Amino acid sequence: MNHLRIFSGTLLTLFMTLGFTSCLPKSEPQEVKLPSLNFGFLVADEANNDLFSDKLPHHLDPDKMTVTIQGKKVGVYTQKEFAELARSGNVKPKEAPMPRSVGPVETAPRTSNPILYGAFIEKVSIPSGSSSSLQAGEFHRLMIGQYDGEKNHPDETIIIDWGDGSPRTVMHFSYKVSRDGEQIRLQNEITIDGKKLNDQDPNQVFEGHIIIRRSTHP
Length: 218
Prior knowledge:
The chain has 1 helix and 14 strands. With 218 residues, it is mainly β.
């Protein structure tokens, strides 16, 4: 039986275990409250380097990026910006810049779910000898959220505009919650740019994070 991976980061984060039905048994009589859905992305170049590292000449600039989530285009906080925001207790999405983009324009439908923070960057660690092909050591992740984990999301769209004129990354996901006695069953599916994500492939998913590889060549 598979279980969702839940861990605490800057916020309580639930990364969906993809492609199958998960069962969460109740440990107590009262109803279990599911945490919000948030997505973590590790973005790498062809050599598996962290594309948010300013040590790379071709690194991504969060200040030029936008993310469209639940029909709203927002900016991307740096780790320092988001830490200051979290300390203030006034967490809200960042205003979006106006980046130049290429490729077809796709819009995300607006939903009624609250957006807590939109998107931000923070540091994580890739351990040596892990199953991932990513460079070991400090790595940045792009966090996007949030969605209500108690509600069904039959067709949601997240659009990442990298702010460098390259094509957007478009993610579609579906999420269904059903309760059967003392079990909670979750059904999930994610596609990235039209390709279904395989959570068993270490080149696509690492410890609940979605890996995106981007070409740095024109």
